[in-house]
Amino acid sequence: MPQTNTYIDFGAGSLAVPSKRATLDAFRYTSHAFMMQEWNAIWTRTWLLAGLALDVAEPGDYFVFDIGAESIIVSRAENGTVAAFYNACQHRGNRIVTAERGAAAAITCPYHGWTYHLDGTLKLVPDEERFSQGLPVERLSLKPVKAEVWAGLVWINMDPDAAPLGDFLGLVQGQLAPYRFEDMVLVKDQTVALDANWKTCVDNFNEQYHVDFIHPQHASFVDCRDAANELWPFGHRRVLVEGYVTNPRYGVPEELPSLLQAAIRPLGLDAEDFRGKVPTLRKAVQQRKREVGRELGFDYSGFTDDQVSDVLQYDLFPNIIMTIKPEELWVMRPRPHPTDPDKCFFDKWTLRIHVPADAGRGLSLVGDPNAAPLDSSERPEHEVFTREDVIAGRHSMTITIDQDIHYLKDMQAGMHSRGFTRAWLNEDEARVQHFHDWVDVWLEQNPLRPEARLSRAAE
């Protein structure tokens, strides 16, 4: 069967079908002018995933979120709330914090020593008597940015009049609540610099049309051919892909492919039991995971059988790609380069459920039971590298992402050819079209603003 595409509204005024139909021409991927339109209409107005709540777990903890030309400090204030503010000293504009993350009793500008409380309020100015015009705290405190925490993730919005995060995410919050991302452990923190527009990256993760060609291994453990796509308001998308199956396009094998054999071994299942019965594996895994979960102390009762075995990908506008299983979460985030539309930074956080290393007598829900234990309290280092590092094998984001990284540079380069004018999409690339349609909606008017939602409701 072909892929399915379903539009799902969030409610009155939050309609899934966009009011624009975008043309995917080269201009939107390569133009500095288009890049600036996005900055003014999207990046500074929509909710953005800034970082992980675990990095601001205690009062005094902070991290810095760099997006385009802007830098934002996120901190856990003295009263326990999460605060965000622009990383610019109100004295002379100096960027205050240059460390990626850390902990401090206060935030002090290294240039002249102006010091701020963890909520951004001005605390101390050296030689304050020399400021004859005074030092009004309300004027000289750090400029705030809206911040909310959901599912162990910190979100910010530079629009002071932005609607709440819940309005933006809609039904997503309820759907993902059973996964309890906030209880997962960070095991990988990676960033790669790419010669590609941020939208080129988003497009890559928004269709399965390319999977047979650059990810041939997928045919032996998931069914991308028959994926179910859901298209939501504000530019959000979701795809559901069956796992522990083989792609029916290539027929049903007699025995389990090697990748499926490796996937079920940590569950204590024997590949020989599925010889000639490969289509029965998915149901068997659903049952076995629940059994192993009880032994390891992980509760699957809040998940449907499909959620236990299958892979969900949530694509949250503008730039968040979340590949989700009950035991593991990938959060991927292409960020625009400050000045060059042909470049971006691609972040990937890998989080897993917390299982003590000595639990389960060699059983595992997240791959190799002999891999690094997941009960370590030490945060992994942030790996920063280039595409060339991936090609040379010095760094990896998993074989699938590495394959994508290999090709994205060529995709971006082709956009500059005189021989290319615009993309020509098929029905299986509906998530790509939906994303760009909503890019154009945001460029015209902030769809989260009340007046825009009332207008949509009246359509």
Question: Can you walk through the features of this model?
Answer:
With 459 residues, this protein is of the alpha+beta class. The protein folds into two domains: 47-158, Rieske [2Fe-2S] iron-sulphur domain (Rieske Iron-sulfur Protein, 3-layer Sandwich), CATH 2.102.10; 174-428, Alpha-Beta Complex (Naphthalene 1,2-dioxygenase Alpha Subunit, Chain A, domain 1). It contains 14 helices and 19 strands. It is globular and about 85 Å long.
Summary tags:
single chain, 459 residues, alpha+beta, Naphthalene 1,2-dioxygenase Alpha Subunit, Chain A, domain 1, nine-stranded mixed β-sheet, seven-stranded antiparallel β-sheet, 14 helices, 19 strands, globular
Discrete helix count: 14
Helix content: 10-25%
Task: Give unreliable regions as ranges.
Answer: none
Overall residue-averaged pLDDT value = 94
- Could you say what the CATH architecture of the largest domain is? Alpha-Beta Complex
- Overall tally of domains: 2
Write down the CATH class of the largest domain: Alpha Beta
CATH topology of the largest domain: Naphthalene 1,2-dioxygenase Alpha Subunit, Chain A, domain 1
Mind describing the biggest β-sheet? 9 strands, mixed
Structural class: alpha+beta
Distance between the termini: 33 Å
Shape: globular
Radius of gyration: 24 Å
Strand order of the largest sheet: 1-13-14-15-16-17-18-12-19
